[in-house]
Amino acid sequence: MPYFAIAPDANPANLINVETWTKLPPHILPDRAIPLTGKVRRRALSGAARHDGHIDGALTFDLLARADFNAFVNAVFGGFTTPSQRISLTLIDELGYYSPFLGYIEKASFQIAPGGLLRDIVFPLANLTLHSVTKTSAATLTAADRLVYGDTSGGSFTLTLPAASAIQARTVLSVSKIGAAGTLTVERAGADTLNGGTSLALTADGERVDLVSDGVGAWRRV
């Protein structure tokens, strides 16, 4: 099940699964995965290259009913007279993870198909920035913390998830460990379950979990 989400008010705490408005999910092919570096390529005299600037991408649907398309545009843009809107959204990045970005979505291009359908719908995305926060000690996460890096170079600690009921169902919160030393423990809140248990331990540098809430009392790994 896909977990693409959008917050029309650009607040990650208010992410809503896209399928709330559409019966079909977006289609993200490998060549449409969101890059993690900017599109402006520069090369130093040493020969080393870097990519600066904002990230661009696209939110693509293969097929949508006209009614679903209208519902999506009205929810995200507030109507058809708005050419672009600043949003928060969760998309698949070039590493294959569901990652949160802030940026702009623009009105779509599409083709009309028979039977009240639209096909090849492409919403351009511009000026995207990866939205993350870094923790260096024990903390309780909030609904706005959608990508959390836990830096354990100073020692092991625990991050407590927000209550699953405080997060919109079928939206993702990710935790990644930074540093070779120590253990980063991800723990449930209250009586919630976390992947059927109470906690997860991240021990390897760069290890990451994408977790999805059921909106009631459970988290599970994507």
Rg (C-alpha, Å): 19 Å
* SS-derived structural category: mainly beta
Uncertain segments of ≥5 residues (pLDDT<50)?
none
H/E element order? EEEEEHEEEEEEEEEEEEEE
Strand residue content:
over 45%
Q: How would you characterize the overall build of this protein?
A:
With 222 residues, this protein is mostly beta strands. Helix content is 5%, strand content 46%. It has one helix spanning 66-77, and strands at 5-7, 16-17, 40-43, 49-52, 55-65, 84-92, 98-106, 109-113, 117-130, 133-135, 139-140, 147-151, 157-160, 172-178, 184-187, 193-194, 199-202, 208-213, 218-221. Strands 1, 2, 5, 6, 7, 8 and 9 form a seven-stranded antiparallel sheet that branches. Strands 10-12-14-18-19-16 form a six-stranded mixed sheet, with no helix packed on it. The longest helix has 12 residues, at 66-77. The chain is globular and about 60 Å long.
Essential attributes:
single chain; 6-stranded mixed sheet; 1 helix
List the helices and strands and how they pair.
Layout: E1 5-7, E2 16-17, E3 40-43, E4 49-52, E5 55-65, H1 66-77, E6 84-92, E7 98-106, E8 109-113, E9 117-130, E10 133-135, E11 139-140, E12 147-151, E13 157-160, E14 172-178, E15 184-187, E16 193-194, E17 199-202, E18 208-213, E19 218-221
Parallel strand pairs: 10-12, 11-13, 12-14, 13-15, 16-19
Antiparallel strand pairs: 1-2, 1-6, 3-4, 5-9, 6-7, 7-9, 8-9, 14-18, 15-17, 18-19
